[in-house]
Structures are given as structure tokens and as C-alpha cells.
Amino acid sequence: MSELHEKLTYLREKKGWTKTYVAKKLQLNNLGTYANWEYGTREPDAAMITKIANLYDVTTDYLLGNTISLQLKNSFDYKRDDEVNYPVIGTVSAGPNGISYEEHEGYATAMASEVDRNYEYFWLRVRGDSMKDKGIFDGDLALIKVQSELENHEIGVVLVDGEEGTLKHFVRTGDTVILEAANSEYPNRYFSGEEINDIRIVGKLVQVKKYF
């Protein structure tokens, strides 16, 4: 879920509110104004986005697609003292306002002892078998720590020149960056010189939740 109009619909329906009710809460004279925002034919201005964020108790960054957390100040949600909930995301891609997190599937738990509360995290639904030799299979959930750099030989989610994000082994040797799959059927990808600028790191793999 990356578009503003989709988030407006999601948040309203989650509250069980009608468009008319929300329009009144936002002190709009015309119901059609708000309806157009949900249809995606128009967008609210910056002042109204702040008002909407306050109404739904979310951040403006969430509404604008700059974070996947509904509330950046409280991006983790405890189920028990030793468990943390993070959103499950189906697709990561480059969006107009930064990284776009799409196909929100709900939430999955992680152990609180295995995360750093100073960072954001999300679960990525693994697609394909390019990392199967590392024990990461299609349908698994990969817990990703959001960060813009990877150490040599770490596994993380990377974007390459407009493609969807994918899990790869990050290797830097000299002036070359190699994105390695863990499956011999998938060739390594090599980047050097200006090509390295096409690589965008989304985050680091922390753990994998298996599904059978």
C-alpha cells in the first residue's frame, strides 16, 4: 500500500468511519473534496495532510510513503513483553517520495531481544528461490532492519535501477560490487564505476521465519 488515496481508505475503514464523518471531522464544506482524495483524483495540501495524520494518529511520513510504520514514534507493537509486531510487506520498490512499501499483508512477530528499537524493521515476503542455498525459500518471511548500508558479505534487500527489491548477498571487492544469489541457476550481477550508483540498499536481513 503505497499511494496516499489507498492509505486514506485503509485508515478510514479500519476505524469504521464513513466518508461523510471524516469530512466533517476535517471541517470540509464539501464531501466531494474528501471523496476525491480517496479516489486519487486529487490530493490534500500539506496543511491538510498534517490534519489527517492527527485525526488518524499516524505520522505525515506514513501518509506520504516515507516510512512503513503507522507511527514512527511507536513503530513496534508489543504482543507480549518478549515479542514485537512488524508489518509484512510483499513488495519493495523505488517510489516518488523514496522507498515504497507495498502489498501490506498484516503483521508478524519477532523476538524483542533480536531487534534494536532505534531502527525500523519490516518482514518481507520472499518470492522465488534465488536464495535457497542459504535456506531462504519462496513464501518465507525475511525480517529486514531498515538501513542504507551493508557490510561486506551481508545479505540484504537491494534495489537496482527501478527494479523491485530483492534479497541478495552483498559483496564488495575492490571497485566492484557483486550481488550474489544463493542458487547456481541465477548468475551474479556485477557493478562498477557509475553503475554502483544504480544500487540502493533498503536494509539488512536479520532472520527468516519459515513456512512449510
Automatic annotation (TrEMBL):
Similarity section: Belongs to the peptidase S24 family.
Source organism, top-level taxon: Bacteria
Transmembrane segments: none
The UniProt record lists the keyword Lyase: no
GO BP terms: DNA repair; regulation of DNA-templated transcription; SOS response
Signal peptide: none
Keywords annotated in UniProt: Autocatalytic cleavage, DNA damage, DNA repair, Hydrolase, SOS response
Gene3D superfamilies membership: lambda repressor-like DNA-binding domains, Umud Fragment, subunit A
Keyword Repressor appears in the UniProt entry: no
Pfam families: HTH_3 (PF01381), Peptidase_S24 (PF00717)
Name of the protein: Helix-turn-helix domain-containing protein
Molecular function terms from GO: DNA binding; hydrolase activity
